[in-house]
Amino acid sequence: MVDSIEIEQELAQRKIQIEVVYGLPDRQELLTFLVDEGTLLEQGIIASGILSVFEEIDLTINNVGIWNRVAKLTDTLRDLDRIEIYRPLIADPKEVRKRRAEKAKNEGRADKVTGGRVDPRRNKAS
């Protein structure tokens, strides 16, 4: 009969490969290394050492994900997971689009009613 201590020892010996990535406009970092099977996402980030390379990373502020999907710091990692640390948004994309559309209307590049492109066939007198 296999006891629980032997199972725990076997699990502790299994390793999985993960990647941790973080990017700035002028610099990107990709770290590949092995961790124990059952490692949590937050533990993987800490083990990577990336927090000392990029001191601006704050796991209470920065969102994280695995393969382009937002994940929780308490998620368990799987073999070949790619942990991504996301930077906070500088501007709200919805607000940026609104400002761009308003500017296009004011410059005559967009229809003042619909916000779409101006139809050149439409009578300009009306």
Number of helices: 4
| SSE class | alpha+beta
Biggest beta sheet attributes: 5 strands, mixed
User: What is the overall pLDDT average?
Assistant: 86
**Taking Cα atoms only, what radius of gyration do you get, to the nearest Å?**
24 Å
| Series of H and E elements | HEEHHEEEH
What topology emerges from the helices and strands here?
Layout (H helix, E strand, L loop, with lengths): L3 H10 L1 E10 L2 E10 L4 H8 L1 H4 L10 E3 L2 E3 L10 E4 L7 H14 L20
Parallel strand pairs: 1-5
Antiparallel strand pairs: 1-2, 3-4, 3-5
Brief write-up:
The protein has four helices and five strands.
Observed structural traits:
126 residues, Ubiquitin-like (UB roll), 2 domains, 5-stranded mixed beta sheet, 29% helix, 24% strand
